[in-house]
Amino acid sequence: MTEISEAGTKSKTPVVVIVGGGFAGLAAARSLKKAPVRVVLIDRSNHHLFQPLLYQVATSGLAPADIAQPIRSILRDQANVEVYLDEVMKIDTADRLVVTADLTFRYDYLILACGARHSYFGKDEWEQYAPGLKTLNDAISIRHRILAAFEVAEKASDPEERKQATTFIIVGGGPTGVEMAGAISELARFTLKKDFRHINSADARVILIEAAPRVLPVFDPSLSEKALQQLRQLHVDVRLNAKVTKVTEDYVEVDGVPIPTRTVIWAAGNVASPLGKQLGVETDRQGRVVVNPDLGIPGHPEVFVVGDMAFAKRANGAPVPGVSPAALQGGYHVAENIIRILKGEPTQPFHYFDKGSMATIGRNAAVADLHVVKFGGLFAWLAWVFVHLYFLIGFKNRVRVFFGWVFSYWTYSKGSRLIQVQPKDGALLHNPPADPLPPQK
Amino acid sequence: MTEISEAGTKSKTPVVVIVGGGFAGLAAARSLKKAPVRVVLIDRSNHHLFQPLLYQVATSGLAPADIAQPIRSILRDQANVEVYLDEVMKIDTADRLVVTADLTFRYDYLILACGARHSYFGKDEWEQYAPGLKTLNDAISIRHRILAAFEVAEKASDPEERKQATTFIIVGGGPTGVEMAGAISELARFTLKKDFRHINSADARVILIEAAPRVLPVFDPSLSEKALQQLRQLHVDVRLNAKVTKVTEDYVEVDGVPIPTRTVIWAAGNVASPLGKQLGVETDRQGRVVVNPDLGIPGHPEVFVVGDMAFAKRANGAPVPGVSPAALQGGYHVAENIIRILKGEPTQPFHYFDKGSMATIGRNAAVADLHVVKFGGLFAWLAWVFVHLYFLIGFKNRVRVFFGWVFSYWTYSKGSRLIQVQPKDGALLHNPPADPLPPQK
């Protein structure tokens, strides 16, 4: 066996292995900067992702590099951290081992912060037609699908086929769904408006499907109402109390009624990383690990689970939500608890401080719930822009993104409308139209 | 058959079909703005690419969106142009048809501007190990390989394997090869310097192989000498009069001597688009169509070939070089010749106006040959920056790229160091090391 730590032989420095370089994992690594530990951070991608802005990459507003930064480069000046680009295959809590595709690591403390993927409620066959939005690859693939849909419509001669190609269905009315619906509608109605000759891109239909009676169900009802109004102003067809019953290549069935479409985006459900199941402790319906108040797991005080992968309860009994501020706070807290253990002190329970929630719907349109004050419209949008820029890691990205936003705001142009696949890949065109082009005009 | 033009039936407006949205095709389309024609521009990707800066995407200096812009968006305000994202399969000069994967177009005038791909001199099996650099996909794939090589080295325990992983071989000492060699060396020696714990990224070997006795063979010999000095200052191992005799997954053979490496970049040769062969006229050894002085083809005065796909002779008998200014000028010229034909005037021969050549080697390092004056060093670098920014299409890109360069210049950081593939794709790790990690320090 390979021992990264050499613990107990040459060196007495305890090894903290962190799996995942998202908000929680990165916060934990940074908080251990001055602790007398060696930190090993393992992630299967080489970059930290600012996930709240991922929908902007999927809708051509931002380039991938604007919201992602190499984990190595973020942690380059922290001498006690090693970063490994690798995929964790197995966790052995009895022998305190983390086994990756290439290496085996022995840990003294383990922090699991592997996040979640989208869940199809047992209908995994829907994924190929209705991709979710969690990684840069997801976003680039969705961007291709959206842009390619307009290219297909421009070439189609059959009006039904054209309508199908320019129908976009978003499943799930949470923040991601609302943001995607607003952004696709703006893309179609403003950005692409003058780009085509045979179609009017503004005729595109954007349909948002939500099973609950309101959008943004975790927000205050007054803000759900504001968001609904703003979505309707952007001509998004919002269907509440509606349930997707089938997804195929050609259509989506909503409460039994098929809607022809080729572009479906899934924003409806999450399931935690499957690594949680390997710990041998209780998990909830979404696969999240049920953690102790200090975010440790029962029976293994040296193992912590944090972020979207953990099911933690707040003082009032409600679960800590799967949002980035909770992941950040959890990451810091776990690092502090490890430092407490090293000092011989007892760990402390985690208290999530909820600063509020925001969602953006489009140019000037957003909703913000800061508890003391709830508001929508331009002011919420400006608050959203400010908060998101403030938390974007890296000065360069911040200035680039700000510049890009100001420019897009003035011009409605979106700079990242690139399709990198080629038609022969088959990813672009489903069926060549039989009798394609109508005479122009 | 589908007729896009309806020429001769309902409408008398002549149809100009342009294949390719690179410098030549785009220049031709724009020059036809006020001409009484309908322009159909077909490209298999949706974006125009600023190819002179592609090596910056391949070496993490720029993001893909910085140097690419949707062709539709460039031509959105030109009412007589239609853009199709499609791949041309067949050209029928007898019936004046262009057949794509999806559609058939009838033309009155045809402009072929499909460019070139890299050529392996009959050794096509080398391509999988030694990718060339022509498209955004090529650049992203090379960026992944370069970054992944350092990740592999960081995990390797065998010093030979580590050395192999951090050996980068560039085949071909023309502008692309010189630029790639300089940029990889800077990446290794400055940008990544503090990112790793088990390797010193600055130990990477960058080997540039050129069959001729000097780099930049088309430049003035004094500038080749300057470029060589600058490359050596950047610790690039330049091998002149050297020939690649074999390329495999594990090594490159140079004049019979194997050099272990897993990262090879091919910048050695070009072959024109295979569509040229379908015209039934003479092509040269590189597959370029031998054109008349007016850039038309023998026997078909309505068909023009331009850019890297054409073999045109200058007044002094030398061929027009395959560079972007020649493509731009050729595109304008062909459009003007079509306008002349429509007016009943004779076409004019093409005269290439050679403004000079430039190549950049790194921070402060470049060479420029403006005929009246030849220079290297910082001033050439500033001239290079200015010229490339000036010709970047789109205000937003220009400002973004400028900002990115200034930032990189100050900090040596490179903002686009993203690996979007995941390790399990197999693209990243060739062989997991048998006994991977040495004890730290």
Give a nutshell description of this structure.
With 441 residues, chain A is of the alpha/beta class. Chain A has helices at residues 23-31, 54-58, 71-74, 136-155, 159-165, 175-191, 221-233, 324-342, 378-391, 395-411; strands spanning 15-19, 38-43, 47-49, 68-70, 81-85, 88-92, 97-100, 104-106, 109-112, 116-118, 167-171, 205-209, 236-239, 244-247, 251-254, 257-260, 263-266, 270-272, 289-290, 296-297, 300-305, 310-311, 357-362, 365-369, 374-376. Residues 1-10 and 421-441 of chain A have low confidence and may be disordered.
What report would you give on this structure?
The structure is a homodimer of 441-residue chains. In chain A, 28% of the residues lie in helices and 23% in strands. The relative contact order of chain A is 0.15. The longest helix of chain A is centred in the first third of the chain and has 20 residues, at 136-155. By secondary structure, the first copy, chain A, is of the alpha/beta class. In chain A, the strands form eight sheets. Chain A has a six-stranded mixed β-sheet with strand order 5-2-1-9-21-20, covered by helices on one side. Chain A contains ten helices and 25 strands. The model of chain A is unreliable at 1-10 and 421-441 (pLDDT under 50). Chain A has helices spanning 23-31, 54-58, 71-74, 136-155, 159-165, 175-191, 221-233, 324-342, 378-391, 395-411; strands spanning 15-19, 38-43, 47-49, 68-70, 81-85, 88-92, 97-100, 104-106, 109-112, 116-118, 167-171, 205-209, 236-239, 244-247, 251-254, 257-260, 263-266, 270-272, 289-290, 296-297, 300-305, 310-311, 357-362, 365-369, 374-376. Chains A and B meet through β4, β5, α4 and α10 of A and β4, β5, α4 and α10 of B.
